[in-house]
Specification:
Blueprint (H helix, E strand, L loop, with lengths): L19 E4 L23 E6 L8 E5 L5 E3 L5 E4 L5 E4 L2 E3 L4 E7 L6 E5 L9 E4 L2 H6 L6 E7 L5 E4 L16 E9 L7 E5 L12 E2 L1 E2 L6 E9 L4 E6 L10 E3 L6 E6 L3 E2 L8 E8 L7 E6 L20 E5 L6 E8 L5 E6 L9 E3 L5 E7 L8 E3 L4 H4 L5 E8 L13 E6 L2 E6 L2 E5 L4 E10 L7 E7 L15 E4 L6 E6 L17 E8 L11 E4 L9 E2 L1 E2 L4 E8 L5 E9 L6 E2 L4 E4 L6 E7 L5 E2 L7 E4 L4 E6 L2 H6 L7 E5 L2 E4 L1 E3 L4 E7 L4 E9 L2 E3 L7 E4 L2 E8 L4 E7 L3 E2 L4 E10 L9 E6 L10 E2 L6 E5 L7 E11 L4 E10 L17 E4 L32 H6 L1 H7 L3 E4 L3 E3 L2 E3 L10 E3 L6 E7 L6 H13 L3 E6 L41 H18 L3 E4 ...
Parallel strand pairs: 2-11, 13-20, 22-28, 30-37, 38-46, 59-65, 66-67, 66-77, 67-72, 72-73, 73-74, 74-75, 75-76, 76-77
Antiparallel strand pairs: 1-79, 2-8, 3-9, 4-8, 5-6, 7-8, 9-10, 11-12, 13-17, 14-15, 14-18, 16-17, 18-19, 20-21, 22-25, 23-24, 23-26, 24-25, 26-27, 28-29, 30-34, 31-32, 31-35, 33-34, 35-36, 38-42, 39-40, 39-43, 41-42, 43-44, 43-45, 46-47, 48-49, 49-53, 50-51, 50-54, 52-53, 54-55, 54-57, 56-57, ...
């Protein structure tokens, strides 16, 4: 076979008919979940033998070790499947006959936790014994091989011991501070009995005669009392007839240091339970809002247990039904009796989706009594040792009515399909609207739903989101954001929920929105002959994302009309040529059509393999041409255009009282009239359409003229001189430069000039012939493409004022040669980016792990894990060996501590610390959990020594939760929600970046990091949610500091063609390519032809000034391999092979490859892949060889 002699040139996007796959063996392909983490190899650690005295009810004990890289040796015992864990296989424990214990050996240098599980259980939840926290910390202290024993202690709990004799616990015993005391007395004093308990002046049972004792159920003549007291001492007990003159001799209660104590007094005091006594546990549950049919599901009790849930444990959810307490309305009781003192667990539920959390019951005496309130969905399951106030006076249930309106849904045809997904305050899941109510004032019919919640939820906040068609789940469409309201508790509480806004208690005035439409003509030769009907799919119109068939229009043409809501500012879409498979076969990637807020109809056209183009000008009423001294009047009736009757209309324009007939222009789809002559002052005009006079719908200026309604505009001839200058007289293609202009107006002008728009012609350096310059800034960042010829270039600048007068100037720049400093130097578009979640990468300094608070660090996925700047520095050589030259780290600034999780998922992740960095509290300080200023500087300098660059993630759009008071004067009104930019995303405080002062402060904060510390690049978060002026200002500011500084933006959903005009406009140097992941999936699925067409178009669009960064995985979604396994049901081997192919495509495609941390694999995986190719295609010549570049370690050539 012909050897590959030339290395790949990703920069130029070379595509060959010979399928040559570059395998970067540093590349990945592990199953990386969203916000996952990489692991590292460590030095050998001691082996710990874990013994387990198997619970009598268990069948097949297995072990699940969480420690990364742990070695588990079960001495050939094999594996067993845990059916409740999606049939996961785990190592069985070996059995040691000499001790009668089960055991397994574990070696790990990064102990985090483990659990023993009964793989042979039929229970709904597999029984387990979990070990984490303090026990793990003790295990970490072992420096040599050791054995520890998990055995039952005297209280029926499993405890870790250092030996089988239970002489010493693994965790040093802490002295309890309280004792749960129970006293049982066989009375010789009659039926009125009290216990007086004291030590010196301390009287925990109250003043004499003390606490009244109650008759003991099941033991005639006995009386019982419960009390929790300070156990720092012993106490004296005097039993008496409730202060009526009789008492027994005082006795001593030995409570010092005890967590629990139970005594029987039958002539003398004893701690020995009488033989006929059993352990009776009574649990009362307040079942507010759960209906009247309540169940208790129990597990873990002794085999002797009796009670409602006994015999129901083995997959017999919901357990046993229990009865309401006769004396306490709303409370339900369950009683369990055991021969031995053994703890157990239970769940109260209504078998209809509402239940408590798991309740771990500690049996402290022969008459344990507990009270439970709350639900799992409400996040408020609470266990009480003494009766709460609601035991005597339960809070009544509360009922409220929710009305919902969506102008696009019908109560006639959509009833039964529309629901609210609700969470918090005892609500969890789908609530389907089942009634309607006509509203005469608004002339609309509301969907209606009446909901009852526990009274304890009054005052709590409910989260909700309307769904439009539950037969399709979330795919049927939903409200554009999560909504919320607070339950007021008012009698006959009513809420009104208008789609697109939060529910309110006062009925709103409903205003019907005017319909807006995108009309798209699509041309694709051969589709009709192939019997293919293309389909349109958008996710930004404001309506449900559904596939819409094009209508055949003859020849090779198709057309589709798509409605859009007023909030829609652009329509992002794709065209599916085959939507039956996964992934779809599409025409290219994602596309986009801008939809200005003042437009009602956008007409665009698109040819196969190309991008959409606006097919008719935006609808405006007039246009002033100051140079030609003329005014063009335009008229288009949008509704008539949509229904096809526009050209049949008769239209004239009335200018200052004189009518002029307008002519229909089929190319521009409007009526037009050009009137020569411009005079200073007002010009009044109106239209006459089919005999009716109307004002200009696109001009807010109107007034009476000749006693009739007219629109008007003002014109004044202004005189001004424009000058321009560049920051640097010369620059090369890897640098940027800043051009700014200045306007000096003639003092004789009657009106003050305002810059309405400005542009610069940068076509001579590879850009647009009319690159916009933000009027507020009067400056813009420019760049040159690699193929720009060297020398001086003259760049024309045009400035337009508020009246349409145009002023011009030019500026000269010199394009110089790019000379690299050394072999390690690289161009911006040669970057190979390694993206890490800094906190999850590597812990280089354990001393800062709790810098944000002790409760923010730990093993839970929601907490800090210890990664830091020092950890990045420690791994620079490793990263350099991978071949990456740019390290993207998550935001570095100080963040809020975190937020408590109150909705679904709170059980697994009760607290979300701000470990990711996207919830800033101070943009001027480093996050102390990531390290010090010195460690940050060291990381950057050490990277620079290796020829590597640091890319820092920044957030300009918002601050962290709860910072409203900190940034009060910089935030926009939360109640205002207007499109992508002017709204709070996910409830995060949103900066009013369109305010010049706010913008300046944000730009100052971000620029300081790259200016003071030498940061090389920014990755910019949430680009689509910030105005273009702010991005241009930030780009100008950073360029002034470092002309080689670059920014890559996260414009969610963007691709090379659809990026919100953030590329090539002086804002971003690159955007992350969200199209590429879909194309890689399509590629590995065999859709080679469609991907080839996409890449060809993408290659034509990209250059060093207009780049995209292609990624397969990120912190916002599951990894590429995981997606194949979960979504397409690939086996792990199939997914691994496919992911290697995708990685090859990623590395060889034009653009900047962004590798997500944790995607590294070994050389063995590449060799295995080579063998698989050879096995599948025995006649194919396969060779693997050195690739010639660090990132291309080996080239797999298949010919």
């Amino acid at each position: 076979m012909r050897k590959l002699k030339e290395r790949f040139h990703r920069k130029h996007g070379i595509v060959s008919c010979i399928f040559s796959m570059v395998l970067a063996l540093a590349m990945i392909v592990t199953m990386v979940p969203a916000i996952g983490g990489a692991t590292t190899a460590y030095a050998a650690s001691p082996t710990i033998r874990l013994y387990l005295d198997k619970p009598s009810t268990w069948n097949t004990p297995v072990v699940n070790v969480w420690a990364p890289g742990a070695t588990v040796d079960n001495h050939g015992a094999g594996n067993a499947t845990i059916t409740q864990w999606s049939n996961q296989e785990k190592p069985k424990l070996a059995y040691e006959e000499s001790s009668g214990f089960y055991y397994v050996d574990v070696q790990s240098s990064e102990w985090t936790g483990f659990q023993f599980v009964d793989a042979g259980s039929d229970e709904k939840a597999a029984p387990e014994i979990k070990t984490e926290g303090a026990a793990i910390e003790q295990i970490k202290t072992f420096t040599s091989d050791a054995s520890i024993y998990c055995l039952l202690d005297g209280n029926g709990n499993y405890q870790w011991y250092k030996d089988a004799t239970k002489k010493e616990t693994l965790i040093p015993a802490s002295v309890p501070t309280e004792c749960d005391l129970t006293i049982n007395y066989k009375s010789t004093l009659g039926d009125d009995v009290a216990a007086y308990i004291y030590h010196e002046t301390n009287e925990p049972a109250g003043k004499w005669p003390g606490q009244t004792m109650t008759a003991t159920e099941g033991h005639e003549g006995w009386y019982t009392m419960h009390l929790t007291l300070d156990n720092s001492t012993d106490y004296t007990l005097i039993l008496n007839n409730d202060g009526q003159g009789k008492e027994l001799d005082k006795v001593t209660l030995s409570t010092k240091g005890k967590a629990e104590a139970e005594y029987w007094f039958d002539g003398s005091l004893s701690e020995t339970k009488p033989a006929d006594w059993k352990y009776v546990t009574t649990i009362h549950y307040l079942a507010s809002g759960m209906g009247s049919t309540i169940y208790n599901y129990m597990w873990g009790a002794d085999a002797s247990a009796t009670g409602a849930g006994v015999g129901k444990e083995w997959s017999k959810w919901p357990g046993g039904q229990i009865k309401e307490n006769a004396d306490h309305s709303g409370w339900y009781d369950v009683v369990y009796t055991q021969d031995v003192k053994q703890n157990f667990s239970c769940i109260f539920n209504n078998n209809s989706g509402t239940q408590t959390d798991n309740i771990d019951v500690s049996v402290t005496s022969t008459s344990t009594e507990l009270w439970v309130t709350g639900t799992q969905s409400g996040g408020d399951t609470t266990v009480y040792k003494t009766a709460p106030d609601s035991w005597e006076a339960p809070v009544p249930d509360h009922t409220f009515t929710m009305y919902y309106y969506n102008e696009d849904l019908s109560t006639d045809t959509d009833m039964g399909k529309v629901d609210m997904w609700m969470w918090n305050a005892g609500l969890n899941g789908s609530y389907v609207f089942d009634e309607t109510e006509y509203d005469a004032a608004n002339n609309v019919t509301w969907f209606k739903k009446t909901i009852t919640v526990a009274g304890s939820n009054v005052g709590k906040t409910v989260g909700l989101k309307a769904r439009y068609d539950i037969t399709q789940g979330w795919d049927g469409g939903s409200d554009t954001a999560d909504r919320s309201f607070t339950i007021s508790g008012d009698e006959n509480e009513v809420l009104y929920y208008v789609d697109g806004s939060d529910p309110v208690h006062e009925k709103p005035v409903i205003k019907q929105t005017e319909k807006r439409y995108l009309v798209l003509d699509y041309e694709n030769p051969g589709l009709k002959e192939k019997d293919i009907t293309p389909q349109f799919y958008t996710w930004t119109s404001g309506y449900a994302s559904v596939l819409t068939n094009f209508t055949y229009a003859g020849g090779d043409k198709w057309t589709v009309t798509i409605p859009a809501k007023p909030s829609c500012t652009k329509v992002d879409f794709c065209i599916a040529l085959d939507s039956t498979g996964d992934p779809w076969i599409k025409d290219g990637g994602d596309h986009s059509v801008t939809f200005p807020s003042d437009q009602k109809v956008i007409y665009a056209s698109m040819k196969a393999g190309s991008e959409p183009e606006i097919a008719m000008p935006y609808n405006v009423g007039y246009e002033v041409d100051a140079e030609k001294q003329q005014v063009s009047y335009y008229y288009r009736d949008d509704a008539a255009f949509v229904d096809g009757t526009l050209k049949n209309m008769t239209v004239a324009v009335d200018v200052n009282g004189t009518e002029y007939p307008m002519t229909y222009n089929d190319a521009t789809k409007r009526f037009e009239y050009v009137k020569s002559g411009l005079t200073d002052g007002k010009t009044h005009y109106r239209y006459k359409a089919n005999g009716a006079y109307v004002v200009d719908a696109f001009n807010s200026n109107s007034e009476k003229y000749n006693n009739e309604d007219y629109s008007y505009f003002e014109y004044y001839k202004l005189n001004a001189t424009v000058t321009a200058e560049v920051m640097n007289k010369s620059f090369n293609y890897n640098e940027n430069d800043v051009v700014k202009f200045k306007v000096e107006q003639d003092s004789s002008d009657a009106k003050t000039l305002e810059v309405a728009s400005a542009s610069i012609d940068v076509s001579s350096i590879g850009g647009s012939n009319a690159m916009p310059i933000e009027p507020e800034l009067q400056a813009v960042t420019i760049s040159a493409t690699t193929d720009t010829t060297l020398g001086i270039k003259t760049l024309p600048i045009t400035v337009t004022d508020q009246y349409g007068n145009k002023f011009s100037t030019t500026v000269d720049v010199e394009i110089t040669d790019r000379v690299k400093e050394n072999k390690k130097d690289f161009d911006w578009d040669e970057a190979v980016v390694y993206f890490m979640m800094t906190d999850r990468f590597f812990d280089g300094n354990e001393s800062n792990n709790t810098a944000s608070g002790a409760d923010t660090y730990g093993d839970n996925p929601g907490l800090y894990h210890g990664g830091d700047f020092a950890g990045v520095t420690a791994k620079l050589d490793y990263l350099q060996d991978l071949g990456v030259n740019t390290i993207w780290i998550t935001p570095i600034v100080e963040n809020i501590k975190g937020v408590a999780v109150t909705d679904e998922g709170s059980k697994d992740v009760p607290y979300n610390a701000a470990y990711h960095g996207y919830w800033a509290s101070d943009f001027t300080k480093l996050n102390p959990t990531l390290g010090t200023t010195g460690e940050f500087e060291t990381m950057i300098s050490e990277a620079h020594k290796r020829g590597m660059r640091i890319m820092v993630d920044i957030v300009v759009n918002h601050a962290g939760y709860g910072t409203e008071s900190t940034f009060a004067d910089m935030l926009r009104d939360k109640s205002v929600s207007e499109g992508d930019i002017k709204s709070w995303q996910s409830g995060l405080p949103d900066f009013a970046t369109e305010n010049a002062d706010v913008r300046a402060k944000l730009v100052e904060w971000q620029t300081a990091w790259m200016m003071d510390y030498g940061v090389d690049y920014f990755r910019v978060d949430t680009v689509k949610h910030v105005d273009s002026t702010t991005w241009a200002a930030l780009k100008n500011s950073t360029t002034k500091v470092n002309s080689s500084f670059k920014m890559i933006g996260e414009y969610f959903g963007a691709g090379y063609a659809s990026n919100g005009s953030s590329l090539g406009t002086g804002q971003m140097d690159a955007d992350l390519d969200f199209d590429f992941n879909d194309q890689a999936t399509s590629f590995v699925s065999g859709n080679i032809s469609s991907v080839e067409k996409f890449l060809s178009a993408r290659n034509s669009a990209l250059n060093n000034t207009y780049m995209t960064g292609q990624f397969l995985s990120s912190h916002d979604e599951d990894g590429f391999k995981a997606a194949l396994m979960n979504g397409k049901k690939y086996t792990e081997d199939e997914a691994t092979s496919a992911a290697l192919v995708a990685a090859t495509l990623q590395l060889t495609a034009k653009g900047i490859p962004v590798i997500y941390y944790g995607e590294e694999v070994s050389e063995e995986d590449a060799e295995k892949f080579t063998e698989e190719i050879t096995e599948l295609y025995p006649d194919v010549d396969v060779d693997i060889q050195f690739g010639g570049q660090p990132i291309y370690y080996y080239v797999l050539a298949v010919e």
